């Protein structure tokens, strides 16, 4: 089973019960049009870079609820570096319900896109990769990949979501959005270096890897 599909299993029953009529306990998403009646039903996270309990949270008025803030994710490569340190990821799952005649979509680079900061330190044999995947259950997924070839050292900023691919749309009534960020290093036996990914560049140190401003609300 695809790892993203596996991570959705625990949400499917909950979504089927809540999609058509958001419960009173769900948080109204105030950034959406009132007619969309958009509610955040649940939000969770997992991954080698954000294990349970690693996130902090703070109230967000646009969501009318607390949002997660994560430490940066990082990877290392070198002659004595364990294999499992060459990649790290953080995946966030959101269950969003809307009115029956509405759906949500992920839109590409726009004024509200998050700006992520990547810090690389690579020798000539190392390559670093940043992969951002956006997936909605029952719809297509979109992955944006940035590759950095050594020798290279410094900070880089990337838009999230980035322009280019066709991003997914939910079914009418909402769906489950999965956002997965991964950093990975590769190279030959002499490759050495590190790579780190942070959230909103210029924002809080533990920034949210969810580009809330990139959610669009559409009639269907």
UniProtKB/TrEMBL annotation:
The keyword Signal appears for this protein: yes
Keyword Manganese: no
One family name in Pfam for this protein: DUF4360
Domain of life: Eukaryota
Keywords annotated in UniProt: Signal
InterPro entries according to UniProt: DUF4360
Ranges in coiled-coil conformation: none
Signal peptide segment: 1-20
Protein name, as recorded: Secreted protein
């Amino acid at each position: 089973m695809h790892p993203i599909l596996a991570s959705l299993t625990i949400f499917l029953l909950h979504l089927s019960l809540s999609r058509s009529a958001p419960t009173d306990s769900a948080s109204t998403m105030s950034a959406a049009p009132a007619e969309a009646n958009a509610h955040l039903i649940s939000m969770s996270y997992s991954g080698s870079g954000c294990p349970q309990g690693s996130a902090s949270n703070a109230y967000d008025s646009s969501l009318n609820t607390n949002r997660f803030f994560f430490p940066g994710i990082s990877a290392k490569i070198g002659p004595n570096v364990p294999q499992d340190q060459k990649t790290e990821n953080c995946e966030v799952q959101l269950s969003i319900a809307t009115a029956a005649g509405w759906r949500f979509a992920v839109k590409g680079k726009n004024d509200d896109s998050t700006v992520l900061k990547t810090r690389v330190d690579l020798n000539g044999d190392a390559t670093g990769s940043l992969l951002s995947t956006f997936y909605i259950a029952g719809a297509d997924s979109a992955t944006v990949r940035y590759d950095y070839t050594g020798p290279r050292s410094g900070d880089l900023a990337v838009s999230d979501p980035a322009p280019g691919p066709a991003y997914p749309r939910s079914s009418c009534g909402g769906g489950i959005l999965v956002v997965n960020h991964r950093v990975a290093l590769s190279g030959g036996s002499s490759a050495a270096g590190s790579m780190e990914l942070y959230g909103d560049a210029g924002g809080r140190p533990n920034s949210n890897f969810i580009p809330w401003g990139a959610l669009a609300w559409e009639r269907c």
